[in-house]
Fold this protein.
Amino acid sequence: MPEFRQNFITNEWVIVAPERAKRPDQFAKDREKKPKRLEHDASCPFCPGNEDKTPPATLTFGEGKNWQLRVVPNKFAAVNTALLPTRRSVGKFLSADGFGIAEVIVENPLHNEMLSTMPVKVVRDVLAAYKNRYAAISKNEHVDLITIFKNHGEKAGTSLEHPHSQIIATPIIPPHVRYLMQRALLYHDTYGVCPYCVMLEEELAQKDRIVFEGEYFIVFCHFASRTPFETRIVPRRHYSRFDGITDGELDELAVILRMMLRKLYVGLNDPDYNFMISSSPISEGDLHYDHWRLVIVPKLTTLAGFEIGSGIFINIMPPEDCAKFLREVNAD
Amino acid sequence: MPEFRQNFITNEWVIVAPERAKRPDQFAKDREKKPKRLEHDASCPFCPGNEDKTPPATLTFGEGKNWQLRVVPNKFAAVNTALLPTRRSVGKFLSADGFGIAEVIVENPLHNEMLSTMPVKVVRDVLAAYKNRYAAISKNEHVDLITIFKNHGEKAGTSLEHPHSQIIATPIIPPHVRYLMQRALLYHDTYGVCPYCVMLEEELAQKDRIVFEGEYFIVFCHFASRTPFETRIVPRRHYSRFDGITDGELDELAVILRMMLRKLYVGLNDPDYNFMISSSPISEGDLHYDHWRLVIVPKLTTLAGFEIGSGIFINIMPPEDCAKFLREVNAD
């Protein structure tokens, strides 16, 4: 029976329509694992030996030619550090020069590995690089929103195979983000607690959408998930900015993120996916009503006209079934 | 130089980043036109002779076996007319049974034609069927939002080849739609005019994003377009509900919609696309601050982590260039 479900934070509705569902493993059957590529590609700008094909690194782990991870400014960035975001009228419309900071985290020297197939130490380094660059970039006086994300595979919007993630910092808080924050603020005004903390407690109480309970992090497919296997990794501790993460939390997040990506790789045959870290705007410090989170969205379905027009997503796979499947996939 | 641009209605920002741009015709070069299929497919539920594979039609144009267009309930609907949308608590979360009406408009008996390759009369019939079903469905006491849309091609979310569009009616106004309406209402409260009318006038005054000026409709790629070749067809006359369209307007809309889809077919080699008709909620009648519109979104780029996380779209093709290209494509 189809069911409308409301997102606890945004009040956005999704339709969970299991009549149209595939079994979880059918999402895997539609696809073969991508062929194994070579360890090194001489034409890849992120492979060792081609360091001069990128702008100078803003952060390097490892020594000289034996680097283990590099962060470099994005050569083909959609934003530009040389501009200023002053608003300007174009008739009745509004624009601003495209100031922003865009960096690429080259996760590893190997061209053909992925976060899901690399040792935990590599994932730990990647997360530490996120924190390091987040903290450094947040010192720029014009930066307000910092988005950390990864596009894995063509359907997720990348054509570069070498494992990498990205950071884009903008001077602008878009309505998409402000709307979420205002909903959370009103909830806090009303109930005196962070709605993300409440959502986490409620998911823990209902239990059937929980994928994993760590010491510091909970993994779940939330009640009103918009797409199959959409998964959140949320810290138990309340804090709103990603760079507040402790060393112990980084250790556990590395293990959990690798495990979740590995479950997708093994259980769904290496699907394309995006993940994003949502964190509070820089100008507002640590907020009592906001709560950072990492969201993984596998690209298994297509956005169609109904979703674009109405904003209501049709999810053919109940999050309870997704969580059960993910719990049971052996990712060792 | 990259530029932030703000959507006049939603205040949402996009980054127009022409440094990363392809030339418009390169979007065509990436793709070949789909191979011509057979006129009739015995296994297609929408082809003549298979009328018993769909539920009984709610509207038919033409006589008996010589039907020209059929509207049928969607056999695999994500919503169900037998339910009621009463809200129900699931712990702290909210759900409702999935009431809704979902119909498919089978646009033509021919399996292998498209709106862009069929005569204007067929497109006129399709639009008349939209109006007829919109008006009929709006009489259902539980219906509030009616979304008319078309998914053309796999990347747009359809696997059925036979030319068809869809209507989904829901009892719920989602925040996505309400937010747009509230922005428009506040604008009207402030300036005493419909913001969509103002946007139309401003686009006409700036001129370089106008694709076509008809007697009743204007076609343009708006200032803050999120994706390349996103195109709006908007009535000059102010009214907020699609079913207020007159016969003369229907005549012109058929010519214009076919022309625009033909320009995509010819100029960009038959890209996958969605189009959606956005129209006011049923329960609120005709609104002085809302304005229906038809939006065409070709699927030429991929939603990536930055867009999902921040809500800021990066558009690599300035709408001025898209409008110029579309003006110049010969679609005769």
About this structure: The mean pLDDT of chain A is 94. The two ends of chain A are 36 Å apart (CA to CA). Chain A touches chain B through 78 residues (CB under 8 Å). Residues 247-267 of chain A form the longest helix (21 residues).
